[in-house]
Design brief:
mainly beta; five-stranded antiparallel sheet; 3 helices; 37 strands
């Protein structure tokens, strides 16, 4: 294997360049939560206190990958030493063929401990690790597909050494893997893009049993979870235009106990993640395909009967893929979704309460040189979250593995700022506005002004809580806009936007000419004279 090159940028660079956070609106549910990381001046926000009384802040973010190459991270999990294990694919670290599976192990601060490539020797081969879990012996199991075009399970030890590797002849892709209570493994995927498959193995990776199901189109089983009775719950969708979603429960021997179909009348529906919930029921997260593509959370009872569903829309983008979710320690849910975009996609992190009501949410990425496609989320032992996926290299169109650690801290956002200033102005002239806010915790604060002309002031500060600050701006076009200002404290926890402040730059033949405007600035009496003739 070639030498591993690790590229990572510090939090200050990331906050200034990579992370863009917007507001998320909950359509069926009428409440939204605090958006606290970064900013997005093109989105609006409504804020209320999280039921947990805590706010999310970035602890760190890291990137891993070869220079000017593509590395795509599919999954991240916290390990027993409080570090993290990542899996996916690499075009750079690919000694076995064209693209190889690549696993990265980090410490609790995201610093790389080791990285290894895995695959079958084939110059044109494609080996991908799609899901990874730590095993009870301290090693790891990952599932995916290999250069033979078969489903793939690979067991490695705690330092990345291969213990066994199995090509599953009757499977095409294996999207999810879990260790079963008996020490074996259960994995779900598809059988040549035509049939969903669930496979149970012995601890050495040999097949113990498998089950397939027939659905219209080309169905796929996207996720599997172990249930309290040592059985398994799987979800997936009919991949022929994503017609509907299935939820299937089997016992420890693979005997089906129930099968449920969920369809959104008139729309295509896709599910990518399933969880066995604390109350003995189940939850599914997916996406609806329509003019808009919202994220959907469905909660069922222990028999798979729907109890409720929630639909989440986001004004930052109309199209979303819900990738993964997890029930959190407080009984709520953490959901990660990515934008359906081939150019500079962003990701959307949503935290809900136990009934699916949004507590807080955030947009990550989404602007030029801010390609962030997050696919994996897990609550960590400290109550925070680890996010995994891929992001563009700095000033490059190549991709790196990318992980972000979010902490939950006891912190109250600054109050909604007050904004004041002139209501009318002149084109090209500098106009000054004032803003102030109170931080309930007494923290220093920063401000950002949205000038309503596709520009903003950037973060200004820090300033003392309660201090009145000023910011100036020149407009280069005429018209009326709604100015806004927002504050954040030293922990990055943000206020809501101020009430909009209407500001007008009227059309004036004199001031629409920049050269003439500069001349009038130098000769004020000439300005007064010309105004007499144009009134």
């Amino acid at each position: 294997m070639r030498e591993v090159k690790v590229k990572m940028n510090d939090q200050s660079k990331f906050l200034g360049k990579t992370l863009v956070v917007g507001v998320i609106l909950l359509i069926i549910i009428s409440t939204t939560g605090p958006v606290v990381i970064g900013y997005n001046v093109k989105s609006d926000i409504t804020i209320h206190e999280s039921s947990s009384g805590k706010s999310p802040v970035i602890r760190w973010e890291k990137r891993f990958g070869g220079e000017h190459a593509l590395e795509r991270c599919e999954s991240v999990r916290q390990t027993s030493d409080n570090g993290y294990i990542l899996c996916g694919e690499s075009w750079y670290y690919s000694p076995f063929g064209w693209i190889d599976a690549w696993l990265v192990k980090t410490d609790e601060n995201g610093e790389m401990i080791w990285a290894e490539s895995y695959g079958i020797y084939d110059p044109n081969g494609l080996d991908v690790a799609r899901s990874v879990e730590q095993t009870i012996d301290g090693g790891y199991i990952f599932s995916g597909d290999n250069a033979e075009g078969k489903g793939w399970l690979c067991k490695i030890d705690y330092i990345g050494g291969v213990e066994w590797s199995e090509s599953i002849y009757n499977a095409g892709r294996l999207f999810s893997v879990q260790q079963a209570p008996d020490g074996g493994y259960v994995t779900s995927g598809d059988q040549g893009l035509t049939v969903p498959i669930l496979i149970k193995t012995y601890p050495n990776g040999t097949a113990q049993w498998w089950r397939t199901w027939s659905f219209p189109g080309a169905p796929v089983a996207t996720d599997v979870d172990v249930t309290d009775d040592n059985g398994f719950i799987i979800t997936g969708y009919f991949s022929d235009d994503y017609q509907a979603v299935f939820l299937i429960k089997v016992d420890s021997n693979g005997v089906e106990e129930f099968q449920k179909i969920f369809a959104w009348e008139g729309y295509h529906f896709r599910a990518d993640s399933v969880e066995h919930t604390f109350d003995g029921g189940y939850a599914i997260v997916g996406s609806i395909y329509s003019i808009l593509t919202p994220v959907v959370l469905i909660k069922t009872d222990s028999a798979g009967n729907e109890m409720w569903n929630r639909t989440y829309y986001n004004p930052f983008s109309d199209y979303w893929f819900a990738e993964e979710f997890q029930q959190t320690n407080d009984g709520g849910y953490i959901i990660i979704a990515r934008e359906r975009s081939d150019s500079y996609p962003c990701s959307w992190l949503i935290k809900t309460d136990a009934n699916g009501n949004v507590e807080w949410d955030t947009i990550i990425g989404g602007f030029e040189y801010n390609f962030v496609k997050l696919k994996s989320v897990q609550q960590t032992t400290d109550g925070g979250y680890i996010l995994g996926g891929d992001a563009d290299e700095i000033n490059s169109y190549a991709l790196d593995y990318y992980i972000m650690k979010i902490d939950m801290i006891d912190d109250t956002p600054p109050e909604k700022p007050e904004l004041d200033g002139p209501s009318y102005g002149k084109i090209y002239a500098k106009h000054t506005f004032t803003a102030s806010t109170i931080d309930p915790d007494g923290d220093d604060v920063y401000y950002i002004f949205d000038w309503s002309d596709d520009s903003n002031s950037g973060w200004l500060g820090p300033y003392h809580s309660g201090e009145e600050i000023t910011a100036s701006h020149r407009w280069t076009t005429t018209g009326t806009g709604l100015l806004k200002v927002r504050a954040k404290d030293i922990h990055g926890v943000m206020s809501e936007w101020s009430d909009p402040f209407e500001f007008t730059v009227p059309h004036n033949r004199i001031y629409n000419n920049l050269w003439l405007f500069r001349l009038l600035e130098r000769i004020p009496t000439l300005e007064k004279l010309l105004n007499l003739f144009i009134k």
